[in-house]
Design a protein that fits this description.
The chain has 5 helices and no strands. Helix content is 80%, strand content 0%. α2 runs antiparallel to α3, α3 packs across α4 and α4 crosses α5. It is mostly helical. It has one domain.
Amino acid sequence: MAVKIKQLREESTDRLREILAETQENLFKHKMRIATGEGVNPHEAREMRTDIARMKTLLRAIEFVVERAGVDDAVARAALDANSWVPGKAAAAAKAGAQTGS
């Protein structure tokens, strides 16, 4: 079952990391079941890889804004939400907001 990007954006950063680890573990187990010949759907691995890529992309976007703007996760997420999850624009907005707020 593929995870929707909207659902992932609503999760906290720590929870997103937990979900990522769980999905990576499930993918490994799924690959092992395929290798041993158990009756599993090999197409589920593709969905899991896609979910992993989505989560890594979101985490990297948050990390990018935190590094560039020098703000915490909550401010970075707010800036990303306000700027349609475009990391460059969000970093500039968060940096400008941090400078005027100080």
